Amino acid sequence: MEQPNGPALRAIGTTAAEFERDLVSNLYFERGTTMESASAQDVYQSLAVTVRDRLVDRRARTATAHQAANPRCVYYLSAEYMLGRQLRQNLQYTGTEEVARDVLKGLGVSLDEIADFDVEPSLGNGGLGRLAACLLDALATADIPAVGYGIRYDLGLFRQAIVDGAQVERPDDWAFDGSPWEFPQQDDRQAVGFYGRVEVEAGRRRWIPEETVLGEPSHMLVPGYGTQTVNIVRLWRARADSDAFNLADFAAGRSAEAVQEVLRSENISKVLYPADSTEFGRELRLKQQYFLVSCSLWDIVRRFHLRNSDWTVFADKTVIQLNDTHPALAVPELMRLLVDEYELDWDTAWSITRRTFAYTCHTLLPEALETWPVALFERLLPRHLEIVYAINQTHLDEVESRFPGDGDLRRRLSLIQEEPERRIRMAHLAVVGSHAVNGVAELHSRLLAETTLADFARLWPERFRNVTNGVSPRRFLRLANPRLAALISERLGGEGWLTDLDQLRGLAALAGDSEFQRRWRVVKRDNKLDLAAYVRAATGVVLDPDALCDVHVKRFHEYKRQLLKLLHVITLHDRLRADPGADVPRTVVFAGKAAPSYHAVKRIIQLINGVAKVVNADPAVAGRLTVVFLPDYNVTRAELIVPAADLSEQISLAGKEASGTGNMKLALNGAVTVGTLDGANIELRDRVGADNFFLFGVDAACAAEVRRGDYRPGEIAGSDPELAAALAAIADGRYGAGFGDVLDTLLGRDEYLTLADYRAYLDAQDAAAAAWRDPARWTAMSIRNTAHCGFFSADRTVADYRDRIWHADPVPVPPR
Ligand code: CRA
User: Fold this and answer.
1) Is 565 among the catalytic positions?
2) At which residues is N6-(pyridoxal phosphate)lysine found (predicted)?
């Protein structure tokens, strides 16, 4: 991108006069209206463009600096991004929030009302997608040249409504009103092939696809904080050829047939698969994955050729991070490009490929490790199958030479699973094709190397490492919790902590300071009032801002054990009916979406809503216990709940949650965790201190042992009267009839050891209540949580990736 120069360029000033001029002129020229007749949507769109334009200028300078430096670039391949709302972030990153507020006020409009028109693109399921967004934010903040590649789903993650207590999924047409943050680039369209056959031409194999679809990119800007760098996230949308519409069919009245061809193509990016950590055996999903990979690699190669001509330096200039296995097809695709299209020899191509890729694994759940039936793969991507076989051959030859005669090992390490059906193991493909493999928390990385990927860790120990996840302090503290951010900045003497989160340590000395504690509590209370106002409008439930705000917010999954929290609520309800002083006044907030096909966990949502209805209507516990299920959890809702939370529920069965990132966001905002020794909870507890964390439950080793042994949930239920009473209350229909299925899973196999951990969990909750009764003690714990969360900054995560995997240098962008 050429950098335009000269005084004619508007939209770079940050004075009120310049801002107002641009806003009014955008309204006029972009929306064709004036302030007098503008709708709120018009004002929102014009404001967004006005802010965006200030980033465009930085983007132009960023592109120029990258072109000149010819640096090693980080390409992040991810099927999911949860970027969150952009308007407030971009106002903040351009330093125009106050100016915008004043200018709008002068025009008779409130920024807060306009900002509510901003729509979050929910192009992901949960933690993995939000992590991708936090890493992009930190990459730009660190001035590291990076591009995030993804899919521009027309429909993001479904919007969740609760109807009669049950989850109902509604389509998320996030760009319905047009997204001002997107820059479509029609002229960069790229053809992607599917199906077809392999031909041999002059001794070279070549894929002749039978079907092609166009990939049309659009990008969004990813500004760094406190720097001039603006990177991009490039999202691909599937388009049919412009003459795919069948006019003849249409004219003959066959309108459905007329658009068939268009739909076939465009369906590829129609909808995000709403499966979280479960496999989706659908042809369209595999097509999506290849679509992302093919478009992105073409673009990466194009960018490389803008600055370089010699393939031997490709891996020095390029590192491609695979965000889980969804983009693992990039390994055979790069091989195909290098060998078939650019005619490199196999060994050279393989060496380039391996040096280019790195792979992050985000799970331990065996059902979340993707595999694809060979038959489907062969039909859709015949040449890629040949390449996978060839990679596998070399790979298994290496295994044979290092561990001769170990057929069992070869079978376990193979890219192909043979039984019960031949399938391609995508995690194996990603490991074999990468020079670095990482897990996302220390425990997770260790368990990966000891269990899920143990054979690979034995084969190539040097490839394995850990990079613990992190979160953006800009979004999850400064933007989400402006009150706390202001208090912190006041005490630490500036905003330096926003890009150097370890500075929060300075708060530890204030943990016992009663005046600081008082102000800390005022902030929490005000945040709870904001949450209460929202909850009341959304659900009608009234929250007490002085009650302990106890939150279990994240995707619904049995391993995350929302049901354990619910058993606690039921027991509290019983206890409080007998003794109103049995617990501290408490608000329990649940929020999260369940995969639409995950029936068992949708039943738990229903049960929660059943319990909430009964508890909230019971005068015996009024003012003591309130339960709310807040629908449609997403990044925007998290930004509301997290600052208000006192107690953070991180209660997954140990060994199941790879890392978790909600745990970090909540602790950073001064919530105290009640949690198991799972994922990053362990590192969180190490840092905030055991005294400031309520630990309970079996550890991962013990959980595995219980599972292997003769575990009898029924006996536990029989020997614990409170637990038995809670289960009986569900069984006798107090919270709605017909929850026998939920009880059966608990009393039958209890896969996630909910009953085994029940008593320890209640004890931990009692300890939390005791601490809450002493406000000085609780507030000190809360402050210490924030103070010791510096490690969980996404800036630290990116620095770890940079030092251990990417080896990419920053490229500072000069100011104008
Ligand atoms: N569901 C893990 O389960 C982890 C995030 C980000 C997950 C979380 O524990 O914090 O990734 N895994 O690393 C996943 O999506 C495909 O696996 C998640 O978000």
Assistant:
1) no
2) 665
State residue 613 phi and psi, 5-degree precision: -60, -45
| Residue 9 within any structural domain of the chain | no
Instruction: Name which residue sits closest to atom 15 of ligand 1, judged by CA.
Output: 128
Strand partners, 142: none
> In total, how many domains does the chain have?
3
Same-domain status, 532 and 426:
no
pLDDT at 3 over 60: no
Ligand 1 centre distance from Cα of residue 703 (Å): 20
Cα–Cα distance, 777 to 785 (Å, whole number): 13
Reply yes or no on whether 593 is catalytic.
Answer: no
Q: Which atom of ligand 1 is nearest to the CA of 660?
A: 10
| Same-domain pairing of 107 and 179 | no
Catalytic residue among 383, 444, 561, 665: 665
Nearest CA to ligand 1 atom 10: 660
Residue owning the nearest CA to atom 6 of ligand 1:
128
Does one domain contain both 112 and 155? no
Where does a domain end: 434, 467, 500?
A: 467
Q: Is the pLDDT of residue 4 over 60?
A: no
Cβ(438)–Cβ(805) under 8 Å?
yes
Is residue 9 over pLDDT 60? no
Question: What is the amino acid identity at position 357?
Answer: F
Name the residue at shortest CA distance from atom 1 of ligand 1. Answer: 127
* Residue 298: predicted pLDDT: 98
Do residues 101 and 164 both lie within one domain? no
Q: Which of 38, 128, 133 is nearest to 84 (CA)?
A: 133
Same domain, 557 and 428: no
Give the position, in ligand 1's atom list, of the atom nearest the Cα of 326. 16
Segment 75-103 mean pLDDT: 97
Dist. CA 574–CA 725, nearest whole Å = 8
The verdict on whether 362 is a catalytic residue reads yes
Nearest CA, atom 14, ligand 1: 362
Pocket of ligand 1 (CB under 6 A): 126-128, 131, 276-277, 324, 362-363, 368, 440, 469, 657-661, 679
Does residue 457 sit in helix, strand or coil? helix
Residue 725: C-alpha distances to residues 242, 309, 477, 735, 766 (Å): 65, 73, 41, 13, 18
Pick the catalytic residue from 52, 395, 557, 560: 560
The structure tokens listed for 237 are 């949308």
* Cα–ligand 1 centroid distance for 363 (angstroms): 6
Residue entry with tokens 């449609």: 632
**Bond before 7 cis per omega within 30 degrees:** no
Question: Residue 580 is encoded by which pair of tokens?
Answer: 């109103």
Instruction: Locate 567 and state its tokens.
Output: 């058993």
Q: Which domain holds residue 362?
A: 70-85+120-467
pLDDT tens per residue across span 283-331: 999 999 999 999 999 999 999 999 999 999 999 999 999 999 999 999 9
Inside any domain, residue 517? no
pLDDT band for position 277 (cuts 50, 70, 90)? low
CA of 128 to the centre of ligand 1 (A): 5
Share of the chain above pLDDT 70, in %: 98
- Whether the pLDDT of residue 1 is over 60: the answer is no
Residue 373 and residue 417: Cα distance in Å, rounded? 9
**Pair (159, 52) in one structural domain:** no
CA of 435 to the centre of ligand 1 (A): 22
Give the strand pairing for 122-123 and 81-82: antiparallel
Q: Considering only CA atoms, which residue is closest to atom 19 of ligand 1?
A: 127
Shared-domain flag, residues 109 and 149 = no
Q: What is the pLDDT of residues 678-733, one digit of tens each?
A: 999 999 999 999 999 999 999 999 999 998 999 999 999 999 999 999 999 999 99
* 395 in catalytic set: no
State whether 81 and 64 are in the same domain: no
Domain annotation covers residue 743 = yes
Annotated catalytic residue, options 59, 555, 565, 593: 555
How do residues 411-427 score in pLDDT, each as one tens digit?
999 999 999 999 999 99
For residue 275, the domain's CATH number is 3.40.50.2000
Which residue among 78, 125, 272, 363 has the greatest number of ligand 1 atoms within 8 angstroms of its CB, and so is best to mutate? 363
